[in-house]
Amino acid sequence: MSIDTDTARRVAHLARIKVEEEALAALAADFNAILKFVEQLNEVDVEGVEPTTAVMPMRLKRREDVVTDGGYPEKILANAPDAREGFFAVPKVVE
Amino acid sequence: MSDLNALTISEARDRMRAGEFTAAELTESCLQQIESAGALNAFVHNTPELAMDQAKAADRRLQEGDTSGMCGIPLGIKDLFCTLHVPSQAGSRILEGFKPEYESTVTQNLWNSGAVMLGKLNMDEFAMGSSNETSVYGNAVNPWRRGNDSAQLTPGGSSGGSASAVAADLCLAATGTDTGGSIRQPAAFTGIVGLKPTYGRCSRWGVVAFASSLDQAGPMTKSVRDAAIMLRAMAGHDPKDSTSMDLAVPDFESALTGDIKGRKIGIPQEYRMEGMPSEIEKLWQDGAEMLRDAGAEIVDISLPHTKYALPAYYVIAPAEASSNLARYDGVRYGHRAKLAAGDGITEMYEKTRAEGFGPEVQRRVMIGTYVLSAGFYDAYYRRAQRVRTLIRKDFEDVFNDGVDAILTPTTPSAAFGLGEMASADPIQMYLNDVFTVTVNLAGLPGVSVPVGVDTQGLPLGLQLIGRPWEEGDLLNSAYVLEKAAGFVSKPAKWW
After folding, report:
1. CA dihedral B347, B353, B354, B360 (to 10 degrees)
2. For residues B271-288, average pLDDT
3. Is residue A25 part of a domain?
4. A66 reaches B (C-beta below 8 A)
5. Cα-atom radius of gyration of chain B, to the nearest Å?
6. What is the C-alpha separation between B105 and B212, in angstroms, rounded?
7. pLDDT tens-place string over residues B436-448
8. In whole angstroms, how far apart are CA B15 and each of B7, B12, B21, B58?
């Protein structure tokens, strides 16, 4: 499986990272080197093997379904690049 | 009262309790060293005022008879830990200016035990790297040099600043985090002790996430005893991290009996890599001899899926990173790109992330995005997670056969020169983690102990891998190895 510049462009967009057109070829080459390396995994017989979902087996804890936190919008907004009137501000998303 | 900064935690603890000096004096000594060690680029955000306040509070506690092992101990904190109102950037431009409104559980535990924060330490961006060269702050520098050669060497990564600071005695110990070897590899490169605990021993809450199923915080110290003392203060169940184990934290230090008679230590044949330097091979054999001389039984073991650990890691870690790093979008915190007229929200995301992430982080996020994308999930991610099950089973089988710990080299080489890997492809850099990454995939505890120096005078480490939740027993084996190796070398001060 080989990644071309079209695929690299598509992946960059999916990841929401702007990649200049002239950088796509080198990026595709990097992807291919890494994917070639990980394709060794195809040698392994994984028939009937369950994927790992929890590293250390443990029962997920439960708690009462009640509000335990919150009520400090000024802290939530303290690091925002653009906060106005108690909200995060972003470019217009609806016409 | 000179050189207090060069003490170990246990020495400082005992002498402060005996009233020989105060936490304030100890902290001042470290602050002075940090001041004159700019050339190492280890500390990237200093907090001297906070340190002195904490030290004075610790002195009051000590006077009242505080018995916590960490009271008054000055530490460096890896930049990956969120610390209240102190810059926490994960070595990335995208978190420029970010000052958390909260404290990570691990650092809070340390402050509760009376420890002192000197400042934040350099690291690879988002902990992605093995040389500290992906940091927005520029690379940290290893205090060790090749004999009289003035070439600058890497302290390793990603916890490179932590390793450099501890090795150069800028602090008594430091926190690190380890996703594929990021505590153990830099510890080996700088001649210090680095412990990655069992997955779930330390809370991940408030630690900037890289790969959530692999990340674990741990201590980087000057001795095995110090690692035992510091781990106890860091560890514990945290309701805010559902993967932190609800298990009592034992007194790890009391496990350091120095007696390993009859313990079974496994030597995995698959770790004998082609092209491994003979010095590393010899160090490994010497280490096994030391443990045998102390009464342990050395047995050959097999971990058959070892060679697939690195490829599985380079699917799983980027996949998890691509999900975790989706939060850096220029909306809630950190950097936001300047937008051109007519730019919408998608352009804001794309420009912000292109400006904010460095090349290695971008590469891994995109690889992760690719392996999780429609049509490839089963072929890459699901397959890697199935291989991971087999890697974990390799270890389970060996432990079920009665093996107590596994001895391996920590790294395939000593510290390399900064910039030496610049032209290599990414895979070459990834090979640094070949001996450490299996431990993360299996969630096991692993510790690197300095055991010797190479012909150029650079430190080399050996790794011991233990059973889950048995860090005490693991550290006891490490303690025996440390004593037998008698590694006492220190880097000659040039900075």
Report:
1. -150
2. 92
3. yes
4. no
5. 21
6. 16
7. 999 999 999 999 9
8. 10, 5, 7, 14
The CATH number of the domain where A17 resides is what? 1.10.20
Residues 6+ apart with CB under 8 A from B157: B123, B124, B129, B130, B131, B132, B133, B134, B182, B185, B186
CA atoms within 13 A on the CB side of A82: 11
Which range (B159-168, B273-282, B394-403) has the least confidence?
B273-282
SS3 at position B154 = coil
Closest CA to B446 of B431, B461, B429, B460: B461
Q: Is residue A89 part of a domain?
A: no
Q: What is the pLDDT of residues B64-78, one digit of tens each?
A: 998 889 999 999 999
Residue ranges of B 461-480 with Cβ closer than 8 A to chain A: 468
In chain A, the number of structural domains is 1
Instruction: Classify residue A13: in a domain, yes or no.
Output: yes
pLDDT tens, residue by residue, B307-345: 999 999 999 999 999 999 999 999 999 999 999 999 999
Distance CA B234, CA B110 (A): 6
What value, to the nearest 5°, has the Cα angle with vertex B4 and ends B2 and B10?
A: 150
In a domain, A54, yes or no: no
Average of per-residue pLDDT values in chain B: 96
Quote the pTM value: 0.97
Tell me the per-residue pLDDT of B385-404, one tens digit each, with 9 for 90 and over.
999 999 999 999 999 999 99
Q: Classify residue B86 by its DSSP letter.
A: B
Domain that holds residue A22: 5-41
B379 DSSP 8-state letter? I
Which residues 399-428 of B have a C-beta within 8 angstroms of A? Answer: 425-427
Q: Which of B126, B387, B437, B441 is most worth mutating to test chain A (most A CB atoms within 10 A of its CB)?
A: B387
In whole angstroms, give the CA distance from residue B250 to residue B228: 10
Does B236 have pLDDT greater than 90?
A: yes
Whether the bond between B2 and the residue before it is cis, its omega within 30 degrees of 0, is: no
- What are the residue numbers of the active site of B? 78, 158, 182
